[in-house]
Specification:
By secondary structure, the chain is an alpha/beta fold. Helix content is 41%, strand content 22%. The structure holds S-adenosylmethionine. Residues 95-97, 100-101, 116-119, 122, 143-145, 163-165, 168-169 line the site of S-adenosylmethionine.
Length: 269
């Protein structure tokens, strides 16, 4: 990935510091999609302009690249909404992958964006993009299931965010939320954009079945509810199945704030 980044930098030397890494991520996406198209036995016939998508509980065929752009815009809009309320100076994304959300947030929301990630290749790529562009992004190699996180905010008010990362961890119980809230500087807000399994009609049931087949997390919504019942957090927004660029793995937006901070200097939604 670092080699590809080096080549990309040279091929478009006049792009702005924000567009340079975003256009790189776009190229990576195109490569992934081309690989899917090259493996019809695994993915079926993939037509990027007639891809199965979902918006709320409606299924339809549309452009995968456009849906992907909408989805990334949703991430930025959500973080901006928290920033507008003066609530955070740093967002810490758990499971940041190659850093597309960090880049988008740093470029659009004028805050620092820090990622933690298991993949050393992704962490080092993000480091290189940061030093080449000057964007306020960084990533560290950590396992957010067991390592501490709050030090990444370096003493500033911060928001915890996950974007399709918790989906990959089949089991997360309430002790995970307890541990994060017990850290020295707990987050002021938690933002999850994940395929959370909020009960609904037939489409919601199909999404749950998709998660079962792929062994994706199916219990995080129950974990959140149990953290609420224990008085640890308060859910301030829950918007089920907003968009699915993989139709049956749609993104639900869930925002919470720690209970004990909910009256003093806390985010309004
Ligand atoms: C589907 S990718 C999503 C990446 C990114 N959030 C995005 O929206 O493009 C999930 C990422 O979470 C990372 N991840 C999963 N479990 C993790 C853990 N326990 N600690 C750190 N990273 C983790 C994976 O390595 C992977 O890069």
């Amino acid at each position: 990935m670092k080699r590809l980044w080096g080549r990309h930098k040279q091929s478009v030397p006049n792009l702005s510091p924000a567009l340079l890494p975003l256009s790189f991520v776009h190229k990576l996406n195109r490569q992934n999609w081309a690989q899917m198209q090259a493996l019809p036995g695994v993915y079926g016939q993939v037509d990027l302009d007639r891809f199965l998508l979902s918006f709320q509980d409606e299924l339809y065929e549309g452009s995968l690249p456009v849906a992907e752009a909408f989805f990334r815009q949703l991430v930025v809009q959500t973080v901006q909404r928290v920033v507008d309320r003066g609530a955070i100076r740093v967002v810490v994304e758990l499971g940041c992958g190659a850093g597309i959300n960090l880049i988008n947030i740093a470029a659009n929301c004028a805050i620092r964006a820090v990622g933690c990630e298991l993949s050393p290749a992704a962490v080092s790529l993000i480091g290189e993009i940061a030093s080449d562009t000057g964007l306020p992004i960084e990533a560290v190699r950590r396992n957010y299931m067991k390592d501490s996180i709050s030090d990444l905010a370096k003493g500033e008010d911060w928001g915890l965010m996950t974007v399709h990362s918790i989906e990959q961890t089949p089991e997360i119980d309430v002790s995970w939320i307890e541990r994060i809230l017990d850290e020295e500087l707990p987050p002021k807000v938690g933002i999850h954009m994940e395929p959370l399994h909020v009960p609904g009609g037939q489409f919601a049931a199909e999404c749950k079945r998709y998660a079962e087949i792929n062994d994706y997390n199916r219990e995080f919504m129950a974990t959140i509810r149990s953290a609420e019942a224990k008085g640890l957090i308060e859910v301030v927004a829950l918007d089920p199945r907003i968009i699915g660029s993989q139709a049956h793995n749609p993104t639900t937006l869930l925002v919470w704030r720690p209970r004990e901070r909910s009256t003093e200097n806390s985010i309004a939604w």
